[in-house]
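>> received
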Amino acid sequence: MNVLIVHAHPEPQSFTTALRDLAVETLQGLGHQVQQSDLYAMNWNPVASAADFTERANPEYLVYALEQREGVKSDRLAADIRGELDKLLWADLLILNFPLYWFSVPAILKGWIDRVLVSGICYGGKRFYDQGGLAGKKALVSLTLGGREHMFGEGAIHGPLEDMLRPLLRGTLAYVGLEVLPPFVAWHVPYIGDAARGDFLRAYQARLQGLEQDAALEFPRLEQFDERLYPRTRPL
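>> returned
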């Protein structure tokens, strides 16, 4: 496979970075091609703005998604976006590697999503979910967090982790057509010792070595809905 790892952690010595490094080593050892986008090291600009287009279709009023579509057609996307988009389109597997911040992704990663998942290529019109522009590719989320595992779930103090990840797994990755694999989670990372961290690293390596056996999470398919997107059957 061709694999793109988008890494979002400001500390090169962090455990999150160790997960990234392990993924590179493991996947390359299996014969896959790997590219990386280390967002902090790149000083990635997370702010979507008019500056993302070398020329505007409508210079009077910015509708960002529409300008993305026109920018794709006329090759007017900013160079940093075009470079990341080329990596994304090259990849068979996208790995997002990050620490959980405030029940969400770090701002720098959200900005990568906002700017790189461009309308007109990744989605647009009824090109979403299984008909999305990135259909046929896979995505894996690997994340670290400070809480203990028992603090997440139905009835737990923070609620299910799946609820926190829904905007990412469903509203972003599945929406653009990616087959979303179950996330890999390293719990309580700032407070555990080397032995526990080693256990997580070995578990992650095993996941990476067995990706072909991973069943994707289930999300809506357009065939389940009519032309006006009312459900034909019970919605997921």
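>> The helical segments are 15-29, 64-74, 79-90, 107-116, 161-174, 194-209.
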